[in-house]
C-alpha cells in the first residue's frame, strides 16, 4: 500500500526555495534546531521545519515561515490587529519588543516540493505587503518610567 502523505527534508526544502528564486542557507537556531535562512528585499526570514513525517526520519510535513523585526519604541495592539484583520495567510504578533510575521506551510498532500514552491510565491507576496505595511506604522516612543 502506498502512502498519500509526502514530506521534505530540510535540504529538499532549501532546493524548493532556490527553485522559487530565493537564496536558502541551512543554519542553526540557538537551541540547536536547524532552520533555513533567506531574505526578501533585504529583510531576513527563516523557514523552520515542523512535524516529522510518519515514515521518514528526516522528512517534514509542514514548515513555518517567520520574519522577526526588533522594534524600538511601542507598537500599538491596534496596529498589529489591523494587519491580521486584512491578511489571511500570515499572522502578525508582538512579543516583547519583536514583531513576528508567521505563515504555516503544509506540504504533506501531493507533490511536497511543488507545494512548498507555491507557499514560497505566497510568502514573497506577503513579505512585500509587510514591508509596505511597516512603512505606514507610527512607532511610539517608550513610556517614561
Order of helices and strands: HEEEEHEEH
Which sequence of strands runs across the widest sheet? 1-2-3-4-6-5
Q: Characterize the main sheet.
A: 6 strands, antiparallel
- Provide the β-strand percentage band: 25-35%
Mean pLDDT comes to 89
Under CATH at level 1, the class stands as: Alpha Beta
CATH level-3 fold name: Yope Regulator, Chain: A
Residues in helix, %: 25-40%
Tally of separate helices? 3
**What number of domains?**
1
Number of strands: 6
Instruction: Decide which structural class fits the backbone.
Output: alpha+beta
Structure description:
- It is a single chain.
- With 145 residues, the protein is an alpha+beta fold.
- It contains 3 helices and 6 strands.
- The chain has helices at residues 10-19, 77-86, 112-136, and strands at residues 25-28, 34-40, 43-49, 62-70, 91-95, 98-106.
- Helix 1 (10-19) crosses helix 3.
Which descriptors apply to this entry?
28% strand, Yope Regulator, Chain: A, alpha+beta, 145 residues, 6-stranded antiparallel β-sheet
Amino acid at each position: 500500500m502506498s502512502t498519500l502523505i509526502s514530506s521534505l527534508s530540510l535540504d529538499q526544502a532549501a532546493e524548493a526555495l532556490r527553485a522559487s528564486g530565493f537564496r536558502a542557507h541551512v543554519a542553526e537556531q540557538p537551541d540547536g534546531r536547524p532552520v533555513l535562512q533567506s531574505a526578501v528585499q533585504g529583510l531576513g526570514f527563516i523557514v523552520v521545519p515542523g512535524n516529522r513525517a510518519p515514515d521518514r526520519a528526516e522528512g517534514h510535513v509542514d514548515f513555518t515561515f517567520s520574519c522577526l523585526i526588533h522594534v524600538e519604541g511601542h507598537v500599538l495592539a491596534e496596529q498589529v490587529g489591523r494587519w491580521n484583520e486584512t491578511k489571511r495567510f500570515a499572522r502578525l504578533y508582538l512579543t516583547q519588543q519583536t514583531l513576528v510575521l508567521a505563515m504555516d506551510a503544509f506540504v504533506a498532500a501531493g507533490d511536497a516540493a511543488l507545494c512548498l514552491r507555491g507557499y514560497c510565491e505566497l510568502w514573497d507576496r506577503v513579505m512585500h505587503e509587510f514591508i509596505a505595511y511597516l512603512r505606514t506604522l507610527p512607532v511610539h516612543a517608550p513610556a517614561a518610567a
